[in-house]
Every structure is written in structure tokens, then in C-alpha cells.
Amino acid sequence: MTLIPWRPWGELDSLRREMDRLWDQFSGAKPTEWVRGEWAPSVDVSETKDTVVVKAEAPGIDPKEMDTTLSDEILTLKGEKKREREEKGENYHIVERTYGSFSRSVRLPAVVQEDKVRANYKDGVITIILPKTEQAKEKSIKIEVK
Q1: What is the pLDDT of residue 8?
Q2: Which residues pair with 47 in a beta bridge?
């Protein structure tokens, strides 16, 4: 019989770390993502001095059928990737591509000018450019030497 040291706080520490991770995911401490449905497009969120840029992979999705909304610094992409399945005597052995509706929301890292947002679609990637408000732009402060 092997003795194992009892660490009464070890399990609680592991639980605390997992709860912290979940809290960070939903509290907005990081770019928060909520995913509903079986799949959602992968996104990149980047920031420059003047803009926030969101890129979402959406191959096989008609951008005209996507719904993109912005509310309280949360950008939401909704759409559906339709199945292109024609079964004419085909026997599928592997089916890995995902289909169906999705909803993907991302908390933006800065306040943006909602009326100046631009979006384009090229090669299966949606690029959304969101100009920051003047208040959200980083400002340099000059330090005077006396």
C-alpha cells in the first residue's frame, strides 16, 4: 500500500484556478468570446493606434447572408454555413467539415466609432475595421523637466 501525502488545499487551489479562468472568460477581462451552436468561425482581434481590427474565418459562407452587429463594445457575427452534400452513390468514410448556424461575439478592447465601421470579405476571411473614438486613442504625455 502506497501512502500519498494529503494536501487539503491542493484540490481547492485547482478549483480556484479553473474558476478564475471561467470568470476571466465571461467577465470581459480578456477579449471575451461566447460561442453558441456546434461551431463558430475563428477570429483574430488586433489593435493599432487608431483602429481595432477583427478578422474572422468564414470560408463557404455568403457574406450577404451574415448578420454583423455592434452593441456596447461587443461585436457579434451570426450566420450559417450550409451543407453542400450531394449523395449520388457516394459512401462517406470521413466527414470533418462543420456546418450549421453560428453566433460569435467578441468584446472589443476599446470604444469605437460605430458609424464609421467598415467590413470586407476576401478569400474566406471577413475583415472588420473599427475606428477608435478620440477618447479611446492612446495619447502621449510630455514630462517637463524642472
Answers
A1: 66
A2: 52
